[in-house]
Amino acid sequence: MRTVRFGIIGGGMMGREFVSAAARWLHLPEMTIRPEIVAVCNRTLDAPKIDWFRKNIPTLTQVTSDYRELLSNPQVEAVYIAVPHNLHEEFYTAALDAGKHLMGEKPFGIDLAANESILAAVRKHPDCFVRCASQFVFFPAVQRIGRMIEAGAFGQIIEVNAGFLHGSDLNPRKPINWKRIVKDNGEYGVMGDLGPHVCTVPFRAGWIPRNVRAVLSNIVRERPDGKGGMAPCETWDNATLLCEAQDPASGSAFPFTLRTERIAPGQKNNWYIEIYGTRASVRYSLNEANTLELLEYTPGGAQSWQKVGMGHEVTYQSITSEIFQCGVCDVILQMWAAFLYELERGETPGRFAGCATPEESALWHKLFTAALESQASGATESISDS
């Protein structure tokens, strides 16, 4: 089995999730490639966080607070970078210049200019394999939806709605963090943080927005600063984008709504998608993560939604039986399987079985930039296809 040695830059939650996924690689009996984590970089080497990595990664040989030291390590073949948005351009381009394969966190640059710089580095280093982390496409129901799109099962598209709704910032006493600060998170606010997850499936389907009317909300304008005072919250909490997209199969236009919210009463972590077509429709939500709602039309018959229990019908075979439910740790493992499968073979088992690409990140940056312009003008803004 081929081994790819990884370095992790950014010791937060998603870095720890990768460590867990690598430790569970025995769950994937058909994989012929595996990750081995040999280096970790975190801005501060505070004992609790770094001790966790040292304790749980037996192959770890380097711990550093300087990402350049990690990138200069010849043992490291690939890197996973999970740092605030303002660091993406610097860190991602440096990784590519160092000849490392890259899995980067969304949104792949703090703004459109940073994203264009990263994509220029990608083109400069064609031997480096580069993808963006987004796990939700790997839930079994979403993989089923992807196969339906590939098969043209929906007929002509009537309407698509997608979103990611959090209740994480509903409490106004929650202390401020970097995602509420423009210089760290960027002007996109919640769109840059949650929006790429929302865009992945529709954009892979070819449903690219041609224009957008955006309504952005800054609801909680200050939060505790952790020092006894209050600090301004500068970024958008919630965003609703009404777009017009085109169905590449029929050439017809249809409404496409995207919602990203960090202040969504009644929600915890609800990614959802709804697709309505002339032959079939689907609804899916993480609130019922193992259930797909499906409506297939019979000419002259009744319209009847059915609920399909998905179980553990994953794309990259697992030792877990298909009758059991699939959870977020499972789909993170599937995402990493997709990254390494494509790194090794240069292809994926299906159109929706791979990670988000740098080219797809360019599309969501154009959408979010146009959304900011729409919020400022109060008008519908066209989205450049250049």
Query: How many strand elements?
Result: 17
What's the SSE pattern? Answer: EHEHEHEHEHEHEHHEEEEEEEEEHHE
Q: Estimate the helix proportion, in percent.
A: 25-40%
Strand order of the largest sheet: 16-15-14-13-7-12-11-8-17
CATH topology of the largest domain: Dihydrodipicolinate Reductase, domain 2
Strand content: 25-35%
Number of helical stretches of at least 4 residues: 10
The CATH top-level class label of the largest domain: Alpha Beta
- Terminal residue distance: 42 Å
What is the domain tally? 2
What is the CATH superfamily classification of the largest domain?
Answer: Dihydrodipicolinate Reductase, domain 2
Specify the overall morphology.
Answer: globular
What is the overall pLDDT average?
A: 96
Classification by helices and strands? alpha/beta
User: Which architecture of the largest domain would the CATH scheme give at its second level?
Assistant: 2-Layer Sandwich
The main β sheet shows up as: 9 strands, mixed
* Rg, alpha carbons: 21 Å
Uncertain stretches of 5 or more adjacent residues:
none
Describe this structure in words.
By secondary structure, this protein is of the alpha/beta class. The protein folds into two domains: 2-132, Rossmann fold; 138-321 and 357-377, Dihydrodipicolinate Reductase, domain 2, CATH 3.30.360. Helices cover 31% and strands 26% of the residues. It contains ten helices and 17 strands. It has helices at 13-23, 47-56, 67-71, 88-97, 112-124, 140-151, 182-185, 190-204, 328-345, 358-377; strands spanning 2-9, 33-41, 62-64, 78-81, 101-104, 130-132, 157-166, 209-217, 222-224, 230-232, 238-246, 253-261, 269-277, 280-285, 291-296, 306-309, 381-382. Strands 16-15-14-13-7-12-11-8-17 form a nine-stranded mixed sheet. The protein is globular and about 65 Å long.
